[in-house]
Design goal:
With about 100 residues, the chain is an alpha+beta fold. It has five helices and three strands.
Length: about 100
């Protein structure tokens, strides 16, 4: 079989560049705690205090993960008094929809 027929494998192809753009995203969402955060956010907006009840990580690590997801435009935040609430962006909904649909047999 001629590997030249697989355009995604050629370094000069558009598909190869798209694959290169996918690598950082996959690294970002493959971290277990970030994946759990995304799973929770699939059910709607949550404040940091709610995540802390369900994830066994420090508040500073949780904030770091949320910042990384926000920087990637996967989650957005809004402040309400002393609380910060996080929700999936449209991009985040598309990504989590694709990821979690993989779990369906």
């Amino acid at each position: 079989m001629n590997m030249g027929s697989y355009s995604c494998c050629r370094k000069d192809s558009i598909n190869s560049r798209q694959l290169n753009n996918l690598i950082p995203l996959l690294k970002l969402v493959s971290e277990e705690n970030r994946l759990r955060i995304l799973c929770v956010l699939r059910n709607g907006e949550h404040c940091v205090c709610e995540f802390q009840k369900h994830l066994p990580i420090s508040q500073s690590l949780l904030s770091h993960h949320l910042k990384d997801l926000k920087d990637a435009d996967i989650v957005s935040d809004r402040k309400d008094g002393l609380n910060v609430y996080y929700a999936l962006t449209l991009k985040g909904k598309q990504i989590t929809g694709s990821l979690f649909n993989l779990l369906v047999p």
